[in-house]
Amino acid sequence: MSKVAFLLAGGFEDSEMKVPYDEVLKAGHEAEIIGLKKDETLAGKKGEATFKADKAISEVNAVDYDAVVIPGGSSPENLRLSPDILKFVKDADSAGKPIASICHGPQILISADLLQGRTITSYPPLKDDVVNAGAEFKDEEVVVDRNFITSRTPKDEPAFVRELLKVL
């Protein structure tokens, strides 16, 4: 059984959090929601999903998790300014742990300066940001590059979840 960290703030894309979270649990893994504040209630931008942060980013360490998931929507924009969030993903990457990010999720990878020489996908309007951060952008439903799993939009969730579960 793997332990998966879901990095989350309010304004996330509802299905991009709910679908992978539910599938990770259904597959028998442990999932923890990590936000900026413990016990904070986080609502999706469509109001279809609400989650409570199990832990604050300030109280966790990447070595305690087997993988990281970064849902899209406005959540990554709200998290990318946190030095603790950036340190967490850098530490996870240094340890070679899978980091799965969908839609706007790669904004955190950009801010953590982790895209140099990588190949990823994201929400298509982020292409210039991804390329400027040093990555090759591919417009595909899922792109796996070493420990990174990336997808574009909610319609890519089946491929995103499939690749995530494969590495767990």
Describe the structure.
The chain has six helices and eleven strands. The chain has helices spanning 14-26, 75-79, 83-94, 106-111, 127-132, 157-167, and strands spanning 3-7, 30-35, 41-43, 50-52, 55-56, 67-70, 99-102, 119-120, 136-137, 142-145, 148-151. The strands form three sheets. A seven-stranded mixed beta sheet has the order 5-2-1-6-7-11-10, sandwiched between helices. 32% of the residues lie in helices and 23% in strands. With 168 residues, the chain is an alpha/beta fold.
Strand order of the biggest β-sheet = 5-2-1-6-7-11-10
- Biggest sheet features: 7 strands, mixed
Instruction: Provide mean pLDDT, rounded.
Output: 98
Written as H for each helix and E for each strand, in order along the chain, the element string is EHEEEEEHHEHEHEEEH
- The helix tally amounts to 6
Quaternary structure classification: single chain
Question: Which residue ranges are poorly predicted, with pLDDT under 50 across at least 5 consecutive positions?
Answer: none
CA-CA gap between termini = 8 Å
Derived structural class: alpha/beta
Instruction: Tell me the β content.
Output: 15-25%
- Secondary structure: helix percent: 25-40%
Describe the global form: globular
Count of distinct strands = 11
Rounded radius of gyration (Å): 14 Å
